Amino acid sequence: MTQDLSQTAQEILRRNDRGGYTVPTHGLYPYQWNWDSAFVALGFAEFDRDRAWQEIETLVSGQWEDGMIPHIIFHKDDPGYFPGPSVWATGKTPPTSGITQPPVLATIVRKLWEDEGADPTNPRMIALYQACVKSHRWFHTYRDPLGNGLVMVTHNWETGRDNSSEWDDALARVDTSGVGTYQRRDTGHVDAAMRPTAVEYDRYVAILQFGRTSGWNHREIADHGPFRMLDVGMSMELLRANRDLLVLARALHDTEVVAELEARIALSEAGMDWLWYEGVGAYCSRDVVTGESSGLVTNASFLAFYAGVGTQAQRQRLIAALERMTKSATYLVPSLEAGSRAYDHKRYWRGPIWLVVSYMVAQGLAEAGHDDWAERIRTDSRKLIELSGFYESFSPETGAGSGGPDFSWTAAMWLAWCGK
Ligand code: DGY
User: Fold this and answer.
1) How far is the centre of ligand 1, averaged over its atoms, from the C-alpha of 191 (Å)?
2) Catalytic: which of 55, 166, 186, 392?
3) Residue 287, number of CB atoms within 10 A of its CB
4) DSSP readout, 306-364?
5) Is 162 a known active-site residue?
């Protein structure tokens, strides 16, 4: 079975390859997505190393002059997706969206480089290192409103956890009166019960329109945008990515960047407590405007281990939350704890399991000495694919696949992690 599934996983990556970049899945997502490509590179690395590097190099070809790596690169137009390049209207070449996505790139570049012997003169690593330094500086310049090393997002799509209930209260304040009419495409590809609702989509579009009206002025968006949250996921991911970038900076004897990253890491380590919510014993996202915590336990809460934060007592509470999840979920790690408001085991980020987050959570748990939990998550992830195939996400209750089929990053996770 492992052999067959590995074969299928490779075929999915080859089939979703559009020449130098991979689409997340045919139909639903017909362009290059930022964090999808980073994880996909790990999959390619298992059988075609050149193609792994190329995936990231193509992504970085869309980096803006200010350092932002956009969340979508529209290499070729495709009428099957909304909002496409003409809606974003960023005026970039290649056309891109105007927002970013989870900064996992530096972590993956480090891994590719180390797996090839960690040669400090590797020109592919050096070029990508420079792109990551620029991208991380962009986060620090535009997305750290409290100056405490946490990441503010200005669109829920930036988090990758698009419809997490963590955003519900902030999204409810978004004025949608000027949105106008548009035609969604996602619900033509997959069951609407697995996608965000119409009301939610209007809010997503309204936030996009604010950015477009500002001429994609990131200062204006950061100071006045209609949606501003400190995302627990991206805060953890950027801290981790800064640690990995630091390894590269040291290997390159880039002393200025080493000092900059050391300071940033110390700031984020101390700042992370702002996201700790004692009521549930977990790290949760917080609204920049109201200061309110979501108070929700999500799969992103467990990225604390991956980021290397938390006191002994905080870590024990996180493990207790994981333990609690096993009572309601057959498989780990659900994107929202069952029983939380708006929990729905089929609807996107309100319950379903996403293997890329599970991978990061398991990696962090293993590094922290929780090998039993890391192995439980890996085994569950493996079972989900064996049971249902390479879906976008999976029900934590039944293991059924949800969203798009033949998904690139799920195939990559099989090859690089749970199918090994
Ligand atoms: C979508 O179209 O749902 C994407 O997740 C946005 O990035």
Assistant:
1) 15
2) 392
3) 18
4) HHT---HHHHHHHHHHHHHHHHH-SSS-BSB-TTSTT--TTSTTSS-B-HHHHHHHHHH
5) yes
- The residue to mutate among 23, 159, 162, 203, having the most atoms of ligand 1 within 8 angstroms of its beta carbon, is 162
Residue 280: strand, helix, or coil: coil
**Could you list the mean pLDDT of each consecutive 10-residue stretch along the chain, which spans 420 residues?**
92 98 96 98 98 98 98 96 97 98 98 98 98 98 98 98 98 97 96 96 98 98 98 99 99 98 98 97 98 98 98 98 97 97 96 98 98 98 98 98 97 98
Is-catalytic flag, 166? no
* Atom of ligand 1 lying closest to residue 33 CA: 7
The DSSP line for 54-119 is: HHHHHHHTT--TTS---SEE-SS--TTSSS-HHHH----SS-B-SS-----HHHHHHHHHHHTT--
